[in-house]
């Protein structure tokens, strides 16, 4: 199996990563619940048992399967986040295996000084939604296409881009770990209307988010409001 069969490579990568991560959770924290994109945990995607749990692991075993199956791409990720009742996200990690990098909530990634030139906004490789175009126009920013949500948010945290705006539909596992890492270091991370991102909901659909430098949050949210 290899890049000559992208469909099989995606499926195998997803399954093997999911089996490994759920196996570790079961071994290390057998009393915890799991919400995984692959639906192989205690409750799967939309089960209700996790709603009564005090600790829930929110996992995306392979975020960016398209990029994972393309030779030479490194913009795919592995997401692991811990949600605790009354506290929200308390521990998160996003691995970028092809870049040999893992960003975690127990390390601080300080917001750097704003670089010279145009701000940069990470966007999906398909057509950006109207909200992204509005923020780019308001900030005079350039759009930087990237793969997975995790890779985009980590590019913000690393300072290679200044913002990530998404309004095209996502689930909790797409954003929980990246948002946890960003918030732990003081970056702005909310829904595109400015509302807090809430996790371990009965319906895990969480369609939009804004992650950016704190100083860009106000102008970005104002530009997004103008599109509604």
Structure report:
The protein has six helices and ten strands; from the N terminus they run αββαββββαβαβαββα. The protein has helices spanning 6-28, 65-68, 130-139, 149-158, 172-184, 214-225; strands at 33-36, 55-63, 77-84, 88-96, 101-104, 120-123, 142-145, 163-166, 188-190, 209-212. It is of the alpha/beta class and 228 residues long. It has a five-stranded mixed β-sheet with strand order 1-2-3-4-5. The chain has a five-stranded mixed β-sheet with strand order 7-6-8-10-9, with helices on both faces. Helix content is 32%, strand content 23%.
Structure summary, number of beta strands: 10
Q: Extract low-pLDDT stretches.
A: 40-47
Query: Roughly how many Å is the radius of gyration?
Result: 17 Å
Instruction: Name the average pLDDT.
Output: 88
Return the structural class: alpha/beta
Q: Describe the biggest sheet? A: 5 strands, mixed
Number of continuous helical runs? 6
The span between the termini is 46 Å
What percent strand?
Answer: 15-25%
As laid out across the biggest beta sheet, the strand order is 1-2-3-4-5
The H/E string reads HEEHEEEEHEHEHEEH
**Shape verdict:** globular
The percent range for helix content is 25-40%
Topology readout:
Layout: H1 6-28, E1 33-36, E2 55-63, H2 65-68, E3 77-84, E4 88-96, E5 101-104, E6 120-123, H3 130-139, E7 142-145, H4 149-158, E8 163-166, H5 172-184, E9 188-190, E10 209-212, H6 214-225
Parallel strand pairs: 1-2, 6-7, 6-8
Antiparallel strand pairs: 2-3, 3-4, 4-5, 8-10, 9-10
Helix pairs in contact: 3-6, 4-5
């Amino acid at each position: 199996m290899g890049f000559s069969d992208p469909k099989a490579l995606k499926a195998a990568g997803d399954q093997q990563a999911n089996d490994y991560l759920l196996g570790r959770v079961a071994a290390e924290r057998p009393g915890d619940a799991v919400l995984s994109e692959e639906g192989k945990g205690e409750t799967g995607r939309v089960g209700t048992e996790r709603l009564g749990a005090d600790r829930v692991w929110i996992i995306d075993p392979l975020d960016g399967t398209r990029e994972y199956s393309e030779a030479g791409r490194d913009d795919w990720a592995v997401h692991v986040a811990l949600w605790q009742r009354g506290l929200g996200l308390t521990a998160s990690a996003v691995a970028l295996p092809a870049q040999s990098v893992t960003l975690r909530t127990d390390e601080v990634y300080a917001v750097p000084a704003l670089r010279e030139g145009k701000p940069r906004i990470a966007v999906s490789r398909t057509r950006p939604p109207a909200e992204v175009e509005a923020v780019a126009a308001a900030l005079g920013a350039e759009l930087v296409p990237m793969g997975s949500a995790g890779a985009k948010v980590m590019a913000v945290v690393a300072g290679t881009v200044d913002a990530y705006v998404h309004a095209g539909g996502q689930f909790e596992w797409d954003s929980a770990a990246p948002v946890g890492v960003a918030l732990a270091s003081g970056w702005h991370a909310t829904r595109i209307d400015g509302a807090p991102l809430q996790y371990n909901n009965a319906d895990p659909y969480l369609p939009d988010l804004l992650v950016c430098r704190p100083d860009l949050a106000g102008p970005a949210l104002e530009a997004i409001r103008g599109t509604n």
